[in-house]
Amino acid sequence: MKKVLFLFSIVFSFALQLFAQQEQPNIIFILTDDQRWDALGFSGNNIIQTPEMDRLASEGIYFQNAFVTTPICAASRASLLTGLYERTHGYTFGPNELQEAYAANSYPMQLKKAGYKTGFFGKFGVKYSGFEGLFDEGDSYDREVKFPDRRGYFYKTISGDSVHLTKYTSHQAQEFIKNSSAEQPFMLSLSFSAPHAHDPAEDQYFWSEDVDHLYEDFKFPKAPLSADKYFEAQPEYVQKGENRTRWYWRYDTPEKFQHSMKGYYRMISEVDLEIGKIRKTLEEKGLDKNTVIILMGDNGYFQGERQLAGKWLMYDNSIRVPLIIYDPRNPGHRKISDFTLNIDVAPTIMDFANGTVPSTWQGISLADYVIGKNPAGERKDFIVEHLWKVDIIPASEGLRTKDWKYFRYQDDLEHEELYNLEKDPMETKNLAKNPRYKDVLEEMREIFERQAAELEAEKVK
């Protein structure tokens, strides 16, 4: 009898999970700007204070090998929107708009078909003149570059008071949740501008008084790989490019380095503080038990490693990001080592919404991780690319597997880099010219070129 009851309890539990998945939950997707994977307490960072993000991770699914396929905000956000690699959707950081065919097939348009009310607040970051038609409620804004000082982050107001953009975006989210209807599920996309530096300003990083006290007396340790030899190993066009220019802005003196690190961490902690307010609003509205929360960074970030700043390059500093999924209907923590990508977010959202995932999308839904499955477990590699053609940032492309990284620069195909990540996770020993690894180099190059051609072939004609 006990055995029968035990089996019944297992079947009943599984049935409840399936029923929970069949409902249409509310969904909130939180995107931060330039938050690298280890700028999160739960990642093992003992310095940064991110209790709300850590709580989401500890109560949900934490993906420790999450990456973006393109390490620049605009193209990465287009990939998040469309579920496609940059090589397919073709949107970079240039003057052209995202093509209408891709926007029409994006996750907000699919969600409308699934009966969702959609909202977007913050940095959209994709040039598309039809933004107003994508969401039922939408407000696209970013740092105000005409202000070369803190006003770039403090030009929005609440009740007549100027507030930091992080607080403004959070306020809009809270109002959206308060005004939501029990008759219709919602999907809310929040895109914080923080912790992106305000590029025109000498001080670069700006935050609210709420987090002014954090890290005040802490001295950040020197960045790894900051010795001259790691910079000198870079090709000349990297040494003279934007990654180096921004290193001078942020890290070239001990004083700048301390200021920039404290500012970056404070801005992330401020986002974390606002996430707590948003979750409290969900609780007050009685929606906390039926709202899935997804959190991700749009790209990684250099903090002085190799004497560089910014992102754009193919090193893991640039492409590895935090990713968390919290589903209160299926509580329980898992730490996942599978490769997960920014192109997976759109199908994941649609899967949670019980909508139709377009067959043209290239990502994998991660939704079933919350019920103990491993949908991305078979992914063994992925393409990384930065295809914007601009003089100050060399376009590059490559392939990453669990144990190997291969990449090259499009205007200098003779320069290739190959790293054994198992033995050299910091990517310091380029094996591309080592004859012992000729076969590995050729295999990685061949796999990359074949997959790149396949992605090119999937463009809208």
Describe the structure.
The protein has 461 residues and is α/β, with parallel strands linked by helices. The chain has one domain: 3-Layer(aba) Sandwich (Alkaline Phosphatase, subunit A). The protein is 34% helix and 18% strand. It has 15 helices and 19 strands. 48% of the residues are buried. Keywords: Signal.
| Radius of gyration over all CA atoms, rounded | 22 Å
Largest sheet: 8 strands, mixed
Q: Kindly report how far apart the N and C termini lie.
A: 63 Å
The fraction of residues assigned to DSSP E strands is 15-25%
Question: Which descriptors apply to this entry?
Answer:
single chain; 461 residues; alpha/beta; Alkaline Phosphatase, subunit A; four-stranded antiparallel beta sheet; 15 helices; 19 strands; globular
Sum this structure up briefly:
The chain is of the alpha/beta class and 461 residues long.
Write the layout of secondary structure elements.
Layout: H1 2-22, E1 26-32, H2 51-59, E2 61-63, E3 66-67, H3 73-82, H4 86-89, H5 100-104, H6 107-113, E4 117-122, H7 131-134, E5 137-140, E6 156-158, E7 161-163, H8 165-178, E8 186-191, H9 228-232, H10 236-239, H11 242-250, H12 254-285, E9 291-297, E10 302-303, E11 309-310, H13 316-319, E12 320-321, E13 323-326, E14 334-336, E15 340-341, H14 345-352, E16 381-386, E17 396-401, E18 404-409, E19 412-420, H15 438-457
Parallel strand pairs: 1-8, 1-9, 2-14, 3-15, 4-5, 4-8
Antiparallel strand pairs: 2-13, 3-12, 6-7, 9-13, 10-11, 16-17, 17-18, 18-19
Helix pairs in contact: 8-12
Keywords: Signal
Protein name: Arylsulfatase A-like enzyme
Signal peptide: 1-20
